[in-house]
Amino acid sequence: MNSSVIVFPGSNCDRDIAGALENLQFRNTMVWHKETVLPKSDLIVIPGGFSYGDYLRSGAIAAKSNILKEVVKVANDGCLVLGICNGFQILTETGLLKGALLKNKNLKFLGKDIYVKAMNTDNKFCNKYKHGQVLKFNIAHNEGNYFTNPNHLKELEDKNLIPFKYCDEKGNINEENNPNGSLNNIAGILNDKKNILGMMPHPERMIDQIISNNDGVNLFASLLN
Fold this sequence. Notes:
By secondary structure, the protein is an alpha/beta fold. Helices cover 21% and strands 25% of the residues. It has helices spanning 14-23, 66-76, 86-94, 150-158, 217-224; strands at 2-7, 27-32, 43-46, 80-84, 100-102, 110-118, 134-141, 145-147, 164-167, 186-190, 196-199. The termini are close together.
């Protein structure tokens, strides 16, 4: 399976995601933001980091880059696209995903391990997880507070387009275990066609039992499945 990781000035998780993909035998290519042609790709990943130093607004400048025009085209044609952290922010700025990522509720940067619950495993990103499975991921963001209008929020819930919600280690979903204030404890969303996933937690940091855990492996294994 061919993957491409888009790299911007300020990306700091591009090598992490590349390592995760390559460990699972993806044939990966790193693509600089100034490129105008995408390699043939089954999966495109927009990694975490602080593209352009988060100036103006997180992801806003990156969304106007040369290569993102091509990403939008292939995404609309059905190519799988995964945006993690800053990548999620960039996907909302391009309009490939609806909504916005606002500043965290406590107005502080968060860098810690959290728990999420797998809410929808009927998609190409999550089919190796069990419905209701509790996963331990890492977050590292200042603007992870997902917000959207009431109609779209209802659509996300009704169409089962929320693959992950923040929870506690037992799977309880409540405000107490919502680290950033996201509506309905949303940690990630899918588009209508379920070929685009944006999520704030970092699955690529959880692929090695020795240094963290391997809860992220099945996200990448799902794509190969």
